[in-house]
Every structure is written in structure tokens, then in C-alpha cells.
Design brief:
The chain is α/β, with parallel strands linked by helices. It is built from eleven helices and nine strands. The chain has two domains: 139 residues, Rossmann fold, CATH 3.40.50.1370; 152 residues, Aspartate/ornithine carbamoyltransferase (Rossmann fold, 3-Layer(aba) Sandwich). The chain is globular and about 55 Å long.
């Protein structure tokens, strides 16, 4: 298979295993490109991509922008904080105005779950979901699983624990879907108040004991506490959370095996993970950042291949 089965990247849920494998393979090629002295390729020349971020983002936005520029695309950046959205313009108005500028692809982050899907039904451009509310963040899951695969050779049968604020995390949901499609076993770990009620329906294991979870896994993906999405207190204090679920070097060294440590960023150092763990040899956090650009290049390139150009 040399093209994706989908026209948009709305969520991992809609992808087939063959789609994910194609994205990995393409990302490997682009990783070679971005490690060359000349890092640009003309693959998306004459393609215009609009980055629509209705929610604050630094790392994801920069990663997409770099991926687009490495592919020689024309890039329009749009941030709702300084736009007509504050004056009451609707999502569809904003997008129609941008599409009137003849945009081919839209990379979108939005606080409302389902916004990228809504967009894909109403506009004639390829849509990439860069995070919609607490729903999905597909490119993060693709770069996370790509990074594990790079380190361990394969995802089949590997045990991955996702630790932290599962309830408010779009990263967790996308990772669960992606890991399971690639044959990995998944466990979630965190306070009972931060584990969603529906989680058992997804076929994952659940633990409320960090040490137990770490003894089980090959890989620990430590999530950030999403304080900005929490409308009430889900645990007594950050200090208590850190004591119960924070990963320290002492805990890491006490395990009878070496595990891989990941974090989607930004890191709350000293809360979910200490600095000496984040900077340790078992951490692949910086590899995740590098792989993020290659994976996003792959997604944009493959979706652009489905754009019908007028002759």
C-alpha cells in the first residue's frame, strides 16, 4: 500500500494498521533528510498549509511549522488569540475566509472535541488534527509509537504504561488506540479520580500503584498533569500527586530491569518526573521531539498526495 486509506488525519481511531506502518516508513525516510546538511526537500512546493491554533501551543505548532518548511510548503499561521474569533466569528467563517486564499491543507488545534471532523465535512481541504479538546492528538501518538519502535525494534507484545492524568489527556487516548493497533499491551496508571470510567471498554489494564505499573512495563509514558483542563480538585495537592505518582531516579534504579521513559512535554519537572530521570540515559524525550518533525512531515506528505490538482 502506497497511500493512506483516509483523506484526513482526524484521529488514530480511523487509521488502519497499514496506514500507521506507511507513516512510519515515510517518517524513516524523512528522518534521513532532516539529518542531512541540506534539510529541505521540494516535496510540497506549491502546496499551501494553514496552521489554525484556537488553543495555545508551542511545541506542536513549532514542530508542524518546521515540518512544513522542510517540505517547502507555503505556510500561513493563524492564532485565535489575535484574530476575529475573539470578535465572535464562527469556526466555519474563519475557515472559509482562509480557504478563499486557496489553502490546500489545514493543521488545526481546537478546544472542542470533534472540531477537526466538523471541518472536514464542510471544507475542501485536507485536515490534520493537532489536538481537539480531550479527544485525540494523533500525530503525538504516531511520534510516540515511532520512537518506541525505533528503540525496541517492534511494538508487538511490548508493554506500555501511560501514567498520570488520563481523564483530560488526548495524548493518552490516541496512544491507546495506536499501541493496540500495533499489537502492544497497554496499562494506565494514576489516581482513581484521573482514570475515566469508560477505560475498561478500551481493553487496557488499570493500576493505581506506580511501582506495580513500572514492574509490569517495558515503557513508561509519563503524562503532564493538565491543570488548565481541570475544573475541580482531582487530588489534594501537586506534592501529594508527586509523592504517589512522580517518577524519581531512586524508583527507576530500584527496578530489576531497564525501562524506557517518555514524556510528551511540556514537562513539569519535579511533579510527574524529576530532572535526573528526564535527562537520564533511559529517557527518549529528546528523540520524541526529533521524531515529531519527521512523523509530521510524513503525515503532511502522504495527505498531500491525495490532493486533486486542477490541470
Amino acid at each position: 500500500m502506497s497511500s493512506l486509506s483516509v483523506d484526513h488525519l482526524i484521529g488514530i481511531k480511523h487509521l488502519q494498521r497499514s496506514d500507521i506502518e506507511l507513516i512510519y516508513k515515510t517518517a524513516e525516510n524523512f528522518k534521513d533528510v532532516i539529518n542531512r546538511p541540506i534539510k529541505k526537500v521540494p516535496s510540497l512546493r506549491d502546496i499551501t498549509i494553514a496552521n489554525l491554533f484556537f488553543e495555545n501551543s508551542t511545541r506542536t505548532k513549532l514542530s508542524f511549522e518546521l515540518a512544513e518548511k522542510r517540505l517547502s510548503a507555503d505556510v500561513i499561521n493563524f492564532s485565535s488569540g489575535s484574530s476575529s474569533v475573539k470578535k465572535g466569528e464562527t469556526l466555519i467563517d474563519t475557515v472559509n475566509n482562509i480557504l478563499a486564499m486557496k489553502v490546500d491543507m489545514v493543521v488545526m488545534r481546537h478546544p472542542n472535541p470533534g472540531a477537526p471532523y466538523f471541518l472536514s465535512q464542510h471544507v475542501d481541504a485536507k485536515i490534520v488534527n493537532a489536538g481537539d479538546g480531550t479527544h485525540e492528538h494523533p500525530t503525538q501518538a504516531l511520534l510516540d509509537t515511532f520512537s518506541i519502535r525505533e528503540k525496541l525494534g517492534d511494538l508487538e507484545g511490548k508493554k506500555v504504561v501511560i501514567v498520570g492524568d488520563i481523564l483530560h489527556s488526548r495524548v493518552a487516548l490516541s496512544n491507546i488506540y495506536c499501541l493496540q493497533k500495533m499489537g502492544a499491551e497497554v496499562m494506565v496508571c494514576g489516581p482513581a479520580t484521573l482514570i475515566p470510567k469508560y477505560i475498561n471498554e478500551l481493553g487496557v489494564k488499570v493500576s493505581h500503584n506506580l511501582r506495580e505499573a513500572l514492574n509490569w512495563c517495558d515503557v513508561a509514558n509519563m503524562l503532564r498533569i493538565q491543570l488548565e483542563r481541570q475544573d475541580m480538585a482531582y487530588f489534594p495537592s501537586l506534592r501529594e500527586y508527586s509523592m504517589m505518582f512522580g517518577l524519581t531516579k531512586e524508583i527507576l534504579d530500584s527496578l530489576d530491569k531497564e525501562i524506557i521513559v517518555m514524556h510528551p512535554g511540556p514537562i513539569n519537572r519535579g511533579v510527574e518526573i524529576t530532572s535526573d530521570v528526564a535527562d537520564s540515559g533511559q529517557s527518549i524525550i529528546l528523540e520524541q521531539v526529533e521524531n515529531g518533525v519527521a512523523v509530521r512531515m510524513a503525515v503532511l506528505y502522504l495527505l498531500a498526495g491525495k490532493i486533486e490538482r486542477e490541470s
